[in-house]
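Quick one, probably user error.
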């Protein structure tokens, strides 16, 4: 029986195993021995430059984040096996690597990272960063170019492709991406209004979960139930920005785009404006309005109470401690519907943490650190179940289709996006205004200069 791979529980778990076995190299006997904890029969990797086994001369590398405790005991047999395998790698290739807390806290982490990358040091570091550091550090040339490191196979399934695409050549991570933007639906409400309770799943599986079919369902679910001339049943409890951003990408658009010269600009293409017109139409016609004195997040309570059929936000609402855990009605989860100008693939937007190496180091030192991480982050022999990540999620959902279908799409197609990474770029008022009914073109015209100025200040110097 195959062992179960370590689970990629969240964006913070960027160091989890990728869950795929090597396609060549170790013999069957060596792999069998390794599965039982004997790694001595595995072939030793050779440096293509020297034709000899890699030897890093005792280099000590530390990955710094804002949460780790390197002295914490292993939490599972899988983690014990991972530690044992990493110990073998350290002894075989003569290095050490630990993940530790920078002790600056979440709030102080970006400044500490920036300070080190500017002033430098004699040690060897990799930093885990998030959106607060990524593009500001990129603009300041703080991140090394790891694409120059020889003998790294970037096609391995362990690499988080969305993170690789955020800052190409600079950012990296391993493990499954964290699922994000999605659309939840109430099965009882759908059934009581004449739909198959799994209709969104069925349409998604057939590739027919599109703007058009979603709007048709919204129109049927929004009605005057007592014939008094006032709409009293609405289809959607909508979170405007969390609906708008993936909808733009579903139509082949971007919030912020990059031209052929590497210049960042506010995307006002036809695809983007078409997406905004659609978003506006959905929110004006089918989104349940706030009652008098309601909190900003009133729409969450409306969905929980069964007042609407659909609710959009992010997958974390479905987790064990999320808002949907105690919902009375059964619910499901699908990706946002596809626009007419997109690539036809269901997806989620990626906001995972990233790893970077300081550009302060020489390229030779960067190469050594990156190759050490490549070894250290490889799969533990025997942990080869590509579906192991699903086990973590099954207990949080009311059905398996949310994981086997929707989340599989998300894992297969987690899209990089950049607007959330640009410091000071406040694009949220676009969704506030347009979802409240403002004219799309006029809204963009009124905000574009300020938004572009912020983009230029950070990214186009």
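Nope, works fine. Designed sequence:
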């Amino acid at each position: 029986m195959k062992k179960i791979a370590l689970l990629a529980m969240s964006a913070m778990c960027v160091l989890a195993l990728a869950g795929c076995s090597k396609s060549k190299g170790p013999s069957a006997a060596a792999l069998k021995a390794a599965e039982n904890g004997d790694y001595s029969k595995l072939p030793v990797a050779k440096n293509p430059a020297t034709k000899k086994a890699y030897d890093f001369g005792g280099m000590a590398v530390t990955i710094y984040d804002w949460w780790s405790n390197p002295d914490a005991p292993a939490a599972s047999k899988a983690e014990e096996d991972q530690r044992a395998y990493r110990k073998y790698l350290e002894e075989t290739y003569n290095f050490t690597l630990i993940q530790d807390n920078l002790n600056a806290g979440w709030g102080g982490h970006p400044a500490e990272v920036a300070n080190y990358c500017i002033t430098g040091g004699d040690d060897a570091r990799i930093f885990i960063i998030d959106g607060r550091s990524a593009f500001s550090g990129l603009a300041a040339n703080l991140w090394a170019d790891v694409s120059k490191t020889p003998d790294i196979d970037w096609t391995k399934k362990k690499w988080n492709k969305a993170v690789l695409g955020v800052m190409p050549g600079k950012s990296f991570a391993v493990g499954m991406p964290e699922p994000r933007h999605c659309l939840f639906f109430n099965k009882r409400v759908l059934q009581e209004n004449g739909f198959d309770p799994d209709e969104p799943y069925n349409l998604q599986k057939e590739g027919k979960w599109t703007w058009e079919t979603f709007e048709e369902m919204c129109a049927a679910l929004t009605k005057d139930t007592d014939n008094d001339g006032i709409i009293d049943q609405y289809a959607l409890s909508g979170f405007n920005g969390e609906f708008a951003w993936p909808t733009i990408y579903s139509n082949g658009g971007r919030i912020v785009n990059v031209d052929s010269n590497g210049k960042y600009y506010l995307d006002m293409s036809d695809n983007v404006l078409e997406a905004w017109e659609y978003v506006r139409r959905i929110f004006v016609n089918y989104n349940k309005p706030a009652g008098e004195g309601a909190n900003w997040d009133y729409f969450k309570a409306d969905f929980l109470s069964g007042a609407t059929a659909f609710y959009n936000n992010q997958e974390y609402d479905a987790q064990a401690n999320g808002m949907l855990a105690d919902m009375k009605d059964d619910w499901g989860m699908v990706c946002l519907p596809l626009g007419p100008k997109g690539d036809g693939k269901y997806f989620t937007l990626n906001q995972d943490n990233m790893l970077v190496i300081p550009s302060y180091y020489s390229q030779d030192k960067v190469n050594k650190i990156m190759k050490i991480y490549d070894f250290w982050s490889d799969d533990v022999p025997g942990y080869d179940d590509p579906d192991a990540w699903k086990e973590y999620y099954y207990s949080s959902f009311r059905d398996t289709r949310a994981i086997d279908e929707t989340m599989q799409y998300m894992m297969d197609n987690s899209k990089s996006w950049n607007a959330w990474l640009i410091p000071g770029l406040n694009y949220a008022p676009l969704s506030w205004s347009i979802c409240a009914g403002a004219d799309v073109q006029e809204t963009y015209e009124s905000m574009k200069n300020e938004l572009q100025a912020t983009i230029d200040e950070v990214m186009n110097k």
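Residues 1-23 have pLDDT under 50 and may be disordered.
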